[in-house]
Amino acid sequence: MNTQRVTIKLKNPNPLFEEWLLEWRNKEKEKQSKMYKCYDNALEAMKKYPLPLETGKDCMILQGFGTKLCNMIDDKLKQHRKHDVQKSNDNNLVVCDEPNKKKQKKSPSKSEYTPTNRSGAYAILIALYKSRLAYDVGQQLKNEIIEVAQKYCDKSFMKSDGSSHYTAWSSMSTLITKKLVIKEGNPAKYSLTDEGYELSQKLDLQLNENEDCAIVKKLDIPNKKDVSKESNGKKLPKQTKSKIKETTEETVLNDIFLTAGTFHIYLLVDKQETSGSNKDPVDDETVYELNKLNVDYEVRHLKIGDYAWICKDRNSGEELILPYIVERKRMDDFGASIKDGRFHEQKFRLKQCGIQNLIYLVESIDNNKHTGLPLTTLHQAATNTLIQDGFSVKFTDSLKDTLQYLASFTRILINIYKDKTLMACPKEDLINTSIQDDLFPLMTFKEFNISSSKNKKFKVRDMFIKQLLQLKGLSVDKALAITGVYPTPKALYMKYLEISNSEAENLLSNINFGKLNKKVGPVISKSIYQLYNLKSY
């Protein structure tokens, strides 16, 4: 019996809402009313949103939607249901018969070009690819590319080797000629073409496959069976230490090296999650439940997040933080954080903290009667956090349910990591890991807490991002994309000086952001222009 796999793709998630917005916009345009721009902005936001919306109130999370417009949609929806409850949405579905759909074979390129390993071209492609993955930034300036690329190249990007005047950066002309990279704008910005993206993806895949093996080979790490009981896995012998310092100074931090059986895993609880020192710990619900669940934990002041996990050396007390962190929000605080802007700012700091697996935990309270925002709005904000920001999202029914989840998660992490080999690694050199790996590079807890501090010395780009996040409708992904092209306010302002006011207002409109490569749009572009253009004051 032949079975065929049928895939249903949602072509247009909200056709009715878009139809009504278009109708209202056209009416205002006929009246020559400026109100049509409001409907236009709302329509653009609606088209970009990938999920179905059930009511007008659900639209509150989108840019350009206020209470009045949401109520208009709800009123229109009531009328529509009265007239045609059974209206079909079949026009919005595209059925693809995958077995019968022949894949189009790409015509082979005229010259199968593959750059030499650790050459300038190789490093540039890797750098552009990694920046695109990490920040969803399509275009990069020269200095931003060099900053990432140098570690993947044996030749300097800044100085020639003496035998010629060429540097590793000279390979950029080759990549442009072979149509793997596009150069645009002034100052010049570089981005991967489709062919360049495919090639760099292959190079990065090969790099990731060999990276762990390369680290083990450089360190000459002994097998677990060969580790002597006397060393306890706390520190390496002197000969191995000297070899580490010679070959992997950028990878190993203070030679902290933990093997199976030499460390203990603890759940870290932020002080603000407990009642503090003024109250008897026995009376604290969080402390009481964790003790009842027999969880090994420590209460500390975390600079970011509410819960994390550390591996502590049994003898030296050295601490490495596991690649998991939890941000807990009660429903009422969740709504308040969206209103006052903490929601986007906290997500940005979590994404910059160096922890690979980010968990956003939303906890119900009092049947969620007083949340400050409609529940549908909060659920969609959580959905955006899952889809657009790449967090894992967990809903719990109460604090007790939250602590049971954390207790179970702690036991899972103990089972995963108890037989692993752990080593300290600077934040900037961390690589993504899988639970199947035997060797795990991890940050020290001290570095994690210092680098996540609100009061640390921020780079100009970080401060620029924090400023942008204060603007309504400007998400973390949009801020990262904008600063990827213009990393400082000065760079943006100098560009404004070069062009006319009308061009300046729309300068940022076509910058792509996020996994879906959406555009920033004219409304935000104009708002930023008005904020940073000194001529407007």
How is the topology of this model organized?
Blueprint: E1 6-10, H1 15-30, H2 36-48, H3 67-83, E2 93-97, H4 120-135, E3 140-141, H5 142-149, H6 171-177, E4 181-184, E5 189-192, H7 194-219, H8 238-247, E6 257-258, E7 263-270, H9 285-292, E8 297-300, E9 307-313, E10 319-330, H10 331-340, H11 342-352, E11 357-363, H12 375-387, E12 392-396, H13 399-417, E13 421-424, E14 439-442, H14 445-451, H15 460-468, H16 476-485, H17 489-498, H18 501-505, E15 512-513, E16 518-519, H19 522-532
Parallel strand pairs: 7-8, 10-11, 11-12, 13-14
Antiparallel strand pairs: 1-2, 3-5, 4-5, 6-13, 7-9, 9-10, 15-16
Helix pairs in contact: 1-2, 4-5, 4-7, 9-13, 15-16
Subunit structure: Interacts with EME1.
Region (Disordered): 81-115, 225-244
Enzyme class: hydrolase
Structure description:
Keywords: DNA damage, DNA recombination, DNA repair, Endonuclease, Hydrolase, Magnesium, Metal-binding, Nuclease, Nucleus. Interacts with EME1. This is Crossover junction endonuclease MUS81. Helix 9 (285-292) packs across helix 13. The protein has helices at 15-30, 36-48, 67-83, 120-135, 142-149, 171-177, 194-219, 238-247, 285-292, 331-340, 342-352, 375-387, 399-417, 445-451, 460-468, 476-485, 489-498, 501-505, 522-532, and strands at residues 6-10, 93-97, 140-141, 181-184, 189-192, 257-258, 263-270, 297-300, 307-313, 319-330, 357-363, 392-396, 421-424, 439-442, 512-513, 518-519. The strands form five sheets. It has a six-stranded mixed sheet with strand order 8-7-9-10-11-12, with helices on both faces. Strands 3-5-4 form a three-stranded antiparallel sheet. A hairpin with a 4-residue loop joins strand 4 and strand 5. The longest helix is centred in the middle third of the chain and has 26 residues, at 194-219. The chain has four domains: 6-97, DNA polymerase beta, N-terminal domain-like (DNA polymerase, domain 1), CATH 1.10.150; 120-208, Winged helix-like DNA-binding domain superfamily/Winged helix DNA-binding domain (Arc Repressor Mutant, subunit A), CATH 1.10.10; 246-451, Rossmann fold (3-Layer(aba) Sandwich); 460-536, DNA polymerase, domain 1, CATH 1.10.150. By secondary structure, the protein is of the alpha/beta class. It has 19 helices and 16 strands.
